[in-house]
Amino acid sequence: MTERTDYHIGGTPPETPGNDAAAGPWPATTVVGSRQPRIDAYERVSGTAVYPHDVSLPGMLHGAILRCPHAHARVLAVDTAAAEKMPGVAAVITAATPGADIPWYERDGGFASTLFDPHCRHQGEEVAAVAAETPLQAVDAIRAIRVTYEELPFVVDDTAALAPGAPAIHDGGNLIGEPRVRSRGDIAAGFAEAEVVVEGVYRTSCQIHAPMEPHGSVARWDGNRLTVWDSTQGVYDVQERLAAALELPRSSVRVIGPYMGGGFGSKLETGKYTVIATLLARMTARPVKIFLPREDCFTSTGNRPANTMTIKIGAKADGTLTAIEYASSGSGGAYFGDAGTGALPAYLYQVANLHAIDTTVHTNAGKARPMRAPGVPQAAWALEQAMDELAAKLGLDPLELRLRNIPATLQAGPGLPFTSQHLRECLVKGAEAFGWAEAVARPPDEGHLRRGVGLAAGMWFYSGGPPSTVVVKLHADGSANLNMGASDIGCGTKTWAAMIVAEELGVPLEQIQVEHADTATTQYATSSGGSKTVPSDSPAVLAAARSVKHQLIGFAAEQLGVPADDLVYADLALTSRSDPSKTLKVTEIGMLGRRGVVVGTGYREPNPEGSFTAPTCAQFCEVEVDTRTGGLRILRFLGAHDSGRVLNRLTFDNQVFGGMAMGIGLGVTEERVLDRQTGRMVNANLHDYKIPTMLDVAGDHACLPIDEPDHAFNTTGAKGLGEPATIPTAAAVGNAVARALGVRISDAPLTPRRILDALAAQRKEA
Amino acid sequence: MTERTDYHIGGTPPETPGNDAAAGPWPATTVVGSRQPRIDAYERVSGTAVYPHDVSLPGMLHGAILRCPHAHARVLAVDTAAAEKMPGVAAVITAATPGADIPWYERDGGFASTLFDPHCRHQGEEVAAVAAETPLQAVDAIRAIRVTYEELPFVVDDTAALAPGAPAIHDGGNLIGEPRVRSRGDIAAGFAEAEVVVEGVYRTSCQIHAPMEPHGSVARWDGNRLTVWDSTQGVYDVQERLAAALELPRSSVRVIGPYMGGGFGSKLETGKYTVIATLLARMTARPVKIFLPREDCFTSTGNRPANTMTIKIGAKADGTLTAIEYASSGSGGAYFGDAGTGALPAYLYQVANLHAIDTTVHTNAGKARPMRAPGVPQAAWALEQAMDELAAKLGLDPLELRLRNIPATLQAGPGLPFTSQHLRECLVKGAEAFGWAEAVARPPDEGHLRRGVGLAAGMWFYSGGPPSTVVVKLHADGSANLNMGASDIGCGTKTWAAMIVAEELGVPLEQIQVEHADTATTQYATSSGGSKTVPSDSPAVLAAARSVKHQLIGFAAEQLGVPADDLVYADLALTSRSDPSKTLKVTEIGMLGRRGVVVGTGYREPNPEGSFTAPTCAQFCEVEVDTRTGGLRILRFLGAHDSGRVLNRLTFDNQVFGGMAMGIGLGVTEERVLDRQTGRMVNANLHDYKIPTMLDVAGDHACLPIDEPDHAFNTTGAKGLGEPATIPTAAAVGNAVARALGVRISDAPLTPRRILDALAAQRKEA
């Protein structure tokens, strides 16, 4: 799951000027923290940005993959004779093709399958592939491949998968690993101490990542060197995986992904389609492009698993929590996937006695992959609704209940101090900005349109850290290039990185060009995921810019004949403190002119030991429910977020509103439906699978950053934001609906059907 | 011209581990110095390498340029109405188009013209341009443009250009700058002291660079950011020029040129075609490709000017030179071009009394541009043939005469010591390997086929130096990326650079990937020209590799718990001297694994002050002349070259043989012919302009490196080779022909016509 116990990696890096701890925390800023549109906005909106999906190479072939239509089957025979003779077909590959028997490992290193594994463990497994002159010729050809399957018994239900006699998906039973237990104190004593106890079972549905750009790659060989354009969240991960699969040195594998149309976690892994594209390209000596049809993205590129969460909370009459007991189960799918959710109940609130257990099982369905705060929005759906139930039982305002249980430390082991933690500010300032007190005081609506407000809090457990290397290159005319490995998966990475250089060196933002996400020409970064790109890479950007500044100061000191520490750098100029007549523009530094550029390299320093970094948040919303139709409108949302320093106020809003939209999807509209008769997904398309549209998420939304740099954490003081932004959303909607209707619906999404069912049950009881 | 008086630039760079002078000269090598095929050979020969000429972008338009057909004319009117309506035409640009009035400066900064200057000073000046859907539509459209010219009097002859009343090509007369004088001692006293004097007038013809890949560019705008693929010898020069012309920050201009099909000096300047492509791309909001037809390359992209050289040499009876008087004239063409040749007679031999004057004039012809050792092969044609005349008059072997006049210092100012200089070894070892003594002792041929041997020496005056920055990135699996700015203009830059990394770090050559020549993603280098890429950039590559090694040693020392200076690095492993059981493979270094990569940055250090670096050479050849046809066959050639350390023995051969081929062109086949009636070039095509073919240059050739690292010069000890390789070639052929025939032909090229004319004159005299 998401929690880091190995968050401190690294050691002492060699001293470089850019990594000078003595440079201390960042002073007051002018560019950083302002609202800046994306530096690549023109390219993105004009269509000139070349996403991997747009890559078109001379002589390029198009690939298509034949996938197993069954939930569980064994491939007995594959007849490609007809396909091979189809017009435009250049190559057909199956498990029998020499070189295609590539073992496929999970990200944790365990063996999972082979590239075209004859044992198909879910609908959508790869059986064969074709490269042809046109995309439609490729599709025609895979339809002409005749496959003989032996259909096998299947299971798509979590509980059924653990029942005796359930179909075996892998050797060794359907449990994925051992159930994970988080435990402290004495749970029985905690409940004995409680004056009030609430219990409940909450469920969420399986949500699909569904990024705008489908999954896919373009592969080209030059001799034994491979170039791959991939829609990925991490080019270096893909490089490492491809180098291993194809037995090449990493330097022979170039992975490029400068633009990509979203991933939300589903593009953290290397896809089999990428390796298939490289093999077809090698067989045909031509570039090959494979982008998945949307249906294949739905079945085969991951999901946020459905969870069933049982929670019991005990508290004293004053609201002090005494115990939480929590059990969560979910399916990782047919391969290794983590459906655990226990971190949030374990750590969001101060509670001495805890027992939380996560069980993850295999089913015959597409595997789970990390999806924006994996596990945590589900846990919030349970925990934060249970907290509201508890508040109601205690007669406390839900805000007040939460304020009485703010955690003092991360309650793991002996307790780790937070480098910074502003959950209280998120709740208090958020409530004030939202007008919480007024809203809860308002009398209930009388008619068929019922409004209600709700809040929920959240915490995120993945802080980021090394490794990250960044190079800043200052040109002799004072303009700059920034070179970093991180992917910009839509979050504005290029823009905040350029803003840091602009801030530190005084180069105007429009004179900074960012190169990134290319294993051959850009620096190293870990994948963009876990809300760690900003906290991992921003200190490296700052260090690289400081290295440039350090070198410029050295050159200028020599040129002006003054000691380096006598020079002040500001606005692309250096001036002597002791004799302000001695001044030099950066563009007048002779050594810069002679060298053409000055190159500064920055590394991400290790995180501090013995502490923990956790962004926190609170979201508040108001909804209106139509009791005649079950329709739910989001009227307004406010997100109060502590993610340390705000680098770009505009992308901060973007992230928060984007996270809310995705949380509304989890809470209100999205649900993967598997047919229990066939094990197939029946809504694997964007018509039947309900991603929230603009009309579903529109409202009077606001974003309130708690802009407190966390300098105990890193040099820029920035923490993650992307995942926290979606953590409390669904739960806040759930609480608002419960307040609006006077009845709690424990299962997400809150479809009209579920709302009408709940209202019917309510009327029946009344 | 070529001589450097400012060869020392720079100052003290900041201390970085990689630039550690204490690392000292390079020890014995295993990879460096071996024969290694190009690391990109597969791409080059298979056609997968994408040269700028191969770049094809989605939506790309094709440009064509309308050029003035007259030697001298004024554009009175341009009517583009018909062209604009032609099928496929997307844009037409002329001097009247808004934004096209861009001033055009010479490389020395002087104003020369405007982009579409109505004053056309030579055949081939740019008048208008078109962008269309296909290349042929663009050509059709420029043919439909109606231009009204006022034809002006023209001059294409150097001498006529200086005569009173000659057509004025620019304001201020047709002399380009002041004649350049090199002078020392007392020339009159020197000749008074002489016991033997020879005099002669030697001429060379105008030679065209004619690289395989024509000149051209592809331009694409993304908002206000520009990307240009250019067939250039220096991406940073093009970046600087485009940024200035288009008033953009340099970081907004990305110039890419990873492959290029030769330049020989003609691609050191930015072409107007490049700017025109950027303007057409901006007008149409589509990428635009302009590659010049071969005819335009002949008229408008430079040449090695024709020279007339008068030389007088005095010597004592023992062969000691007492005086050299030298005068050279040539045309720079219609714009600034240097036709000077005086360096070689001034510096090749020890002579106390010297007077050398270079005069360069404007004519109505395409401008001169630096061409492989600009000026020096012409000077060698004169000097080295005059030396043979002198040897004959003295009754000395030509080899012996030269050995008696080896220079002790560079005879400029008080005299500068050479960092190393092995002219004597070139002559002695070359003669030995060639069998010079035996060859000259052989009696003359009797029949119509006359064989003869000849030798000539050479020196090159451009040593290279800073700036250069290089980054080496070592991956956690021990493979590496090398990132440098230099263009690989065909000389094997990528290969020797990878060999240095392989040597220093022990990474296998095939696991090193080189990225280069991209202003956005690669490091800074000056243009590849002047034989300075190796001596300028190889020390930076070594410094970057050493920086990586230094960091690895630091990490390993910490991991093993030993002092850094106790560790020995060899074969990608580190071992303790004091306790060899303490050892670590590079791939086992934890910090490398955690960081993903280690990045080392290297800078080129300044050259030493108060000395001069000059590669030297001697070439020996044997020819056979058919006295019936005037046909000339090259039987064998041997080049003995001192270029310091040999990095790659195979590319060393390639460079020497390539230089010889080009020198054979100058001496035997190549000649631009301008029609004196029209001022137009009459052989502007590869059929009528005689580039030597394989049959013209084939023979029993050998290459003898004087492999002496010049560690007084730089850390790798390598000096330049590309230009020296072509310096003595034509002169050696001239001397061999004179020996074969007993008559000296003073004008190059030695065409059958000139040979037959000389034989006829010889018979007349006899």
Write a concise keyword list for the protein shown above.
homodimer; 766 residues; alpha+beta; Aldehyde Oxidoreductase, domain 4; Aldehyde Oxidoreductase, domain 3; 3 domains; seven-stranded mixed β-sheet; five-stranded mixed β-sheet; 27% helix; globular
Can I get a quick summary?
With 766 residues, the first copy, chain A, is of the alpha+beta class. In chain A, 27% of the residues lie in helices and 24% in strands.
Q: What is the name of the CATH architecture of the largest domain in chain A?
A: 2-Layer Sandwich
Going across the major beta sheet of chain A, what is the strand order? 3-7-1-14-11-12-13
Question: What is the percentage of strand-forming residues of chain A?
Answer: 15-25%
What's the number of extended β-strand segments of chain A?
A: 28
The secondary structure category of chain A is alpha+beta
* Assigned CATH class of the largest domain in chain A: Alpha Beta
The CATH fourth-level homologous superfamily of the largest domain in chain A: Aldehyde oxidase/xanthine dehydrogenase, molybdopterin binding domain
> How many independent structural domains of chain A?
3
Could you outline the blueprint of secondary structure elements for this entry?
2 copies of one chain form a homodimer.
Chain A lengths: L40 H6 L14 E7 L5 E7 L1 H4 L4 E6 L8 E3 L5 E4 L4 E2 L5 E7 L2 H9 L2 E6 L6 H5 L17 E5 L2 H7 L2 E9 L11 E7 L2 E6 L4 H12 L6 E4 L15 H13 L3 E4 L2 H7 L6 E9 L5 E11 L11 H5 L5 E9 L14 H19 L3 H6 L19 H12 L1 H6 L7 E11 L9 E7 L4 E5 L8 H13 L6 E5 L16 H28 L6 E4 L2 E4 L6 E3 L4 H6 L1 E7 L12 E11 L4 E12 L6 H21 L24 H4 L2 E6 L23 H13 L10 H14 L1
Parallel strand pairs in A: 1-14, 12-13, 16-17, 20-21, 27-28
Antiparallel strand pairs in A: 1-7, 2-6, 2-8, 3-7, 4-5, 9-17, 10-15, 11-12, 11-14, 15-16, 18-26, 19-20, 19-25, 22-23, 23-24, 26-27
